[in-house]
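Structure tokens please, single chain.
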Amino acid sequence: MKLGKPYFLKFVFPSLSVMDRYIAAELIPPFLFGVGGFSSIGVAVGSLFDMVVKITELGLSWTIAAQVVVLKFPEFISYALPISVLLATLIAYSRLSNDSELIALRSCGVSLYRLVAPALVLSLIVTGITFLFNELIVPAANYQATITLEKALNEEKPAFDENGILYPEYHTFTQPNGTTTQTLKRLFYANRFDGQSMKDLTVLEWSTLGKLKKIILSESARWNSKQNTWDCSHGSIYFISPKTSFKKIVTFDHQEISFPRAPLDLVTKARDPYEMNILQAIEMIQLLKGAGDRKKLRMLQVRMQQKIAFPFICIIFGLVGASMSIRPKRISKGTSFGVCLIVIFGYYLLSFVIGGFGIAGILSPIVAAWLPNLFGFGAGGWLLWRLEANG
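Here you go.
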């Protein structure tokens, strides 16, 4: 006897009820189709076309282009997972509704909430998969794609070539009333970092009273990991009296400066937000707080919160898709696909606008990242409640 899809799932998930297995069998095929289809479209539009341009105009080799396309695939799979949940719920529940199977289940006393439960379970599973995918695979693959492309197009360019590295170091004092205050202790500035050394270094040092007491100028400086100091070469040290006049000038060929390695971390660990996992983003946020780059700091904080919030749109899309298609009105597969695109466009437009408010400082990073999700949960819950209330 040929086993149907519900019977196959019985061996995989023996604890599920017949109804759950039946609905799951309707959800899984369009979900898998969506993952393959949407990720392929994303790669073709977002990466493949760009590689073709680089091959024809910049002489990029086909093998390197193929490597970059493969490395970009995980990112588009992560985007396709929640979209596929929406498509699967729209198609599956529309089919059940068009064939009056939902009406039959409702006549047996099954509530809409119970009918939507399999879709929500699938959404929760995909949420976990999306989160792990975005943490363990996507950042590393994106970073490797960037490095591979840069090396191919700029073979003689060093791995790092940053300009204008600025990093402050602060004194922290505890006041008699228990409050803490910060004053500037040292200011580290390098005109350029070539991957090995900081070039044209300037270090300003202040006393605990807030008076500038020393200026260090050096042609280059390299981090000494054994001594945890900066080894400066060919420079001068200007000692300044409390009356802001030069007290002494010392020239040197080699001088060690006791300063944190944070300026080095700031350039060597700098990546695009989509090339960092959450731990790397948190580490970079701490460095940017010390560097005082408020604009970049806020952008990274918003992106990190969005990274955490993104997988939960699987649940939103599952809830919205099931609620929209469970009503007793015939919806074709073509209509389901169109509704899917409208919902996706609306959600991402809302997320983009609200995320912009967060980067601009109008909203906090947490609110900017999670507010679209709250709207989505509210809309999906309201649709389902209204259908259940109307019978």
